[in-house]
Amino acid sequence: MPTTLTPQPEIKAGHGLPVYAGNGKIYPKRMPGRFRRLKHWTASFWLLFFFGPYLQWEGHQAVLLDIPHRRFQFFDLTVMPEDIWLLTFVLLFLAMLLFVVTVVAGRAFCGYVCFQTVWTDLYTWIETLIEGPPRARQQLDRAPWGMHKLLTKSAKHLLWLLIAALTGVSFAAWFTDARQLWVDYFALDAHPAAWIILAMFTAGTYLFAGFMREQVCFWLCPYARIQGVMYGDQTILPTYNYLRGEPRQHRSTKQANQAGDCIDCGLCVAVCPTGIDIRDGQQIGCITCGLCIDACDHVMTRIDRPTGLIRYSSLASLASGNKGPSIPILRVTVSLAILASCLLIIILGINNIGDTNLNIYHYRQPLFITMSSGDIRNRYRIKIQNRSQVPAHYQILVSGLENARIMGQSNLAIAAETTRVADIFLELSKSQLPTGITPITFRLIRQGGAVIEYRSVFIGPDAAAPGGTS
Ligand code: SF4
Ligand code: SF4
């Protein structure tokens, strides 16, 4: 069912529910214009997807999502599974960003950035290049199979498949050595996961961008299903100014004093990638790409009428005759506050990710051991993670307990991006033992680098009579 917001023009008799063409193949026309240019700029963001994996940074791949070794490299920053909480805030940030964009500007993400619409646009550009404008494409589709049709269709599908395969390789390249991946593919020696990714992405891209196109936006995309609840009458969407456009009348029969500005040329429908008629009101099938605005502005300029018969506007603005946008202040302010908080937490989190992680666990079973000499011993499990890309030497010291001796491995050499787990012991003669639980601080000194402190306790018989052993 369509989601239309009142007020809206009357739907023409026999028009049915014009939300979405759905039944027939759509042959969108390509036209230049400011929103088409904007779409080119925003779509070029995806060049990063294709070329990003080959960026080098200080002798290594700048971005590497190394799942087998459970580490994600972003330039100098290494993110380990321990930092998964950061991902929570990144996802929350992205969700809130999507929410605020939808509240203000509807499906602007779909129209300008979404991979489905960007790839579909690329595929239709290739189609136009090879098969010609919409009418020629329709004629070719209807024509019987012959050499011309076979060659034309083959060329198009080959290019589509090439792009689909490049998409698959590019996706896989984020997860492994990107340059080696090409060698492995050509030598037929790639990891089975790389072949599966290539096969899935090639098939998916070819099917979704080549054949399903706008059907994905309407029927498969979960975002399309939920974005209706975020809309309000202040949401800025491509809107047909029915007050000015109606009654629409074809130019040949137009009577100047009765008709509105719409000359019913159908160009706004012809360019629409989802095949809808925006004159029937704001609709769920509209991906907010603005191409109908370009088309109508072109028509208005040609018939010497002011542009903006279709324009980005909210229903509230349109009904009140206000030409400027009206923003839902409360919703946007709350969303921006959440966005800013997430961003702050992410930045602080990244700043706190150092070269080394330290975790110390005081054994509870037993809490202490009384040695034959009468000394008291506590045992600790120590976990040191060298997150840097160079090997490092570490020394463990303890403070807070006079004359305590560290037994076990207090000097460790740890390879790059490796975690070491070791047990160490603290011993103290019983005569020097303070009463109660003694707070202590372990200090981990990285050679030529940072010092990390970790608070723990030393427990003797006075503090925990039932727990110890001898
Ligand atoms: S109605 Fe206009 S803005 Fe909406 S999808 Fe169609 S061309 Fe794009
Ligand atoms: S492009 Fe403009 S004038 Fe032509 S049908 Fe659409 S709204 Fe009317």
TrEMBL record:
Keyword Ion transport set for record: no
Domain 4Fe-4S ferredoxin-type: 252-281
Entry-linked Pfam families: Fer4_18, Fer4_5, FixG_C
GO molecular function: 4 iron, 4 sulfur cluster binding; metal ion binding
GO cellular component terms given for this protein: plasma membrane
UniProt xrefs under SUPFAM superfamilies: 4Fe-4S ferredoxins
Keyword Metal-binding: yes
Sorted UniProt keywords: 4Fe-4S, Electron transport, Iron, Iron-sulfur, Membrane, Metal-binding, Transmembrane, Transmembrane helix, Transport
Record-linked InterPro entries: 4Fe4S_Fe-S-bd (IPR017896), 4Fe4S_Fe_S_CS (IPR017900), Cyt_c_oxidase_cbb3_FixG (IPR014116), Electron_Trans/Redox (IPR051684), FixG_C (IPR032879), Ig-like_fold (IPR013783)
Membrane-spanning residues: 38-57, 84-105, 157-175, 195-212, 329-350
Protein name: 4Fe-4S ferredoxin-type domain-containing protein
